[in-house]
Amino acid sequence: xxxxxxxxxxxxxxxxxxxxxxxxxxxxxxxxxxxxxxxxxxxxxxxxxxxxxxxxxxxxxxxxxxxxxxxxxxxxxxxxxxxxxxxxxxxxxxxxxxxxxxxxxxxxxxxxxxxxxxxxxxxxxxxxxxxxxxxxxxxxxxxxxxxxxxxxxxxxxxxxxxxxxxxxxxxxxxxxxxx
Length: 179
Hints:
Number of strands: 3
InterPro entries: Rmp24-like
Region (Disordered): 87-147
Largest sheet: 3 strands, antiparallel
Oligomer: single chain
Strand order of the largest sheet: 1-2-3
Pfam families: Rmp24-like
Protein name: CR021 protein
Radius of gyration: 25 Å
Family: Belongs to the UPF0711 family.
């Protein structure tokens, strides 16, 4: 059924075309190889790779009576790769793998303001808010934000810091109750 004129689409009153997804070019191949070797990618390369991974085939259906075209999108390469990679495994396990993929792609795309402030190493965003005695500061703060593990290690460090503070508070409560 055409969503514009609500006519049934029978073989003689519509035209179907396939707009294929982006093909692998030599430039995309080289960027994929660089990513496989865990090299840093600049913003242009990251954008090209994201465009390649998010590309999807489109079926264009043109109704002859109203001359309007409807697009029907297929799956992107990223989602197809995730489906084939996790086929035969339980849904719970595949759900656990999904965030890792999203985190790695998000880490490679950092705004220019973050990369400038992170390269100095002394900006307020890269320093811890409070210093806990007996704990050495993590070396991940001196790394540039373009490092793929930077955000993950920073979040992990902050979570460990929170857990230690909570455990110290609990120890203080137990200590006071014992008195």
